[in-house]
Amino acid sequence: MTNIDSDAATDPGPGDHGPTGERPPETLFHAAAWREAVEQAFDLKIERFMPPSEPAGVAYYSVMDDIRGRRVVATPFSDVCDPLLTTEQGWQQFAARLRSFEAPVTVRPFIHRHALADDSFEHRCELVWHGIDLSAGADAVWDGLKSKVRTAIRRAAKQGLTFRVSTSMADIAVFHRMHVDLRKSKYRMLAQPLSFFEELHGRFGDDMAVILAEEDGDPVAAMVYLAFNGVWYYKFSASYPRHYRPNGALIIEACREGDRRGLKLLDMGRSDLDQAGLVDFKEQFASTSRRLSTLHWRPEHRTDPIGADAGRTLGDITELLTDPDVPNEVAARAGDRLYRYFG
Predict the structure, then answer these.
(1) Do 143 and 203 share a domain, yes or no?
(2) What pLDDT is recorded for position 276?
(3) Residues 140 and 266 grouped into a single domain
C-alpha cells in the first residue's frame, strides 16, 4: 500500500502538519506514564532538559552508567523520541548537553529537522517506520488491502481462530509467556521483564490492551497496543510456532478497536531494514512509511575496553540463556535481571 521514503530529513511524517518551526507532536514515548514505567522497571532516571533559549521546549535523555560503561540515550527503551523543540538554537543547546557527559550518545529523532540536519552526529539510516491511517475508519483500511491479503485474513477465521480484546493484566501476562518463548526460540534474545508490562498497565489502564488470537480458548498469537494522543501504538507482538498465520487478522482487529476508540492513526512502530519479512508484512497494511535515522556521537579518542568487554559478555550470556534446552521460565528470570543493560 505504500512506498518507503528514503529522505527522512525532508519528508513530513505523521503529525508533522504544521508550519516550519512548529515543534514535533508529543508521542507515547514522551508521555509521563511511559517515562515513569521505564524508570521504575529498569531502575534508571530520565532527565528533562529545557534549553535556556527556548524555555517552553523540553527534551528527554538518560545517562546510563552500569557494567557496559557510561552512555547517553535520548531516550532508552523507546522507539523514537524527538526533542520537543522548535529552533536550531534549542537543538544545539540540547546536543551540547548530551555531549557534555563525554560519553557515547544515541538519539532517535523522528521528524525534528534540526536534529536530522546536524552533521556533527553520525547518521545511520537503519530503521523504517510504518503507520495506518484510521481517519476514514477500519472499513476503509480493509477495502484498501490487496485481495490476496484479505483472503489470508479470512483464512484465520476458517481455521477456527477467534479474536478478543482485553485490558486485563492477566491476559497481558498470557501474552508475555508467548513473548518470552518467541524471543528465546526464534531470535535468541531475552524478553522485557513482566514487571515492565505491569508498570505500563498500572499507568495506562484501559489505554493498554492486548488483542489475542485463540484456538478453542488457547492463545495462538497476541499483540499489545497503547493509546496516546489520538494514536494507537502497536508496541509488542508474539505467537507460538504453529501453522497458523493470524497476524494479518490481528492487525485488522486492532484497526477496528482503534476505530471504536476514535483514534486516527495506528502506529506500527519501527523495524530494522534487515528484517525483510517484518517490513514486507507491515507494507501490506501501511498507508505511510519513512526511513528513520539513528544519530550517534562519540567523544574523540575515547575508548572503554571494560564496557566493551562487558557488552560482549552479556551477548555470550544471552546466547547461553536462550539455548533451546533452557526452560522458558529461566529465560524469563534472566530477562528480569539483565534486560536493563540493553537500553
Answers:
(1) yes
(2) 92
(3) yes
Kindly state whether residues 120 and 142 are assigned to the same domain.
Answer: no
CA distance 330 to 23: 45
Average confidence (pLDDT) over 282-301: 95
Residue 58 near residue 49, CB atoms below 8 Å = yes
Instruction: Tell me, yes or no, whether 259 and 324 share the same domain.
Output: no
Same domain, 287 and 297: no
pLDDT-derived band at 22 (thresholds 50, 70, 90) equals: confident
Q: Is residue 4 in some structural domain?
A: no
Geometric angle at alpha carbon 249, from 245 and 255, rounded to 5°? 150
Asked whether residue 9 is domain-assigned, the answer is: no
The phi, psi pair for 183, rounded to 5°, reads -65, -35
Using the predicted structure, report yes or no on whether residue 19 has a pLDDT greater than 70.
no
Contact present, 333 and 195 (Cβ < 8 Å): no
Q: How many domains does the chain have?
A: 2
The C-alpha atoms of residue 232 and residue 209 are separated, in whole angstroms, by 10
CATH code, 195: 3.40.630.30
* Residue 252 located in a structural domain: yes
Is the pLDDT at 202 greater than 80? The verdict is: yes
Cα maximum dimension of the chain:
61
Residues 255 and 308 occupy one common structural domain: no
For residue 168, give the C-alpha cell. Answer: 486485563
Question: Can you give the residue range of the structural domain that contains 39?
Answer: 28-127+293-342
- Predicted TM-score of the model (pTM): 0.92
Mean pLDDT of the chain: 92
Contact (CB, 8 A) for 200 and 40: no
Separation in Å, CA 213 to CA 240, 260, 328 = 11, 19, 21
Amino acid 1: pLDDT: 53
- Name beta bridge partners: 271: 128
For residue 10, name the pLDDT band (cuts at 50, 70, 90): very low
**In the β-sheet with 161-166, what is the strand arrangement from edge to edge?**
47-49, 59-66, 69-74, 105-107, 288-297, 122-133, 265-272, 231-239, 218-228, 208-215, 161-166
Q: Hey, how many other C-beta atoms are within 10 angstroms of the C-beta on 338?
A: 16
| Within a domain: 136 | yes
DSSP string covering 321-333, please?
HTSTTS-HHHHHH
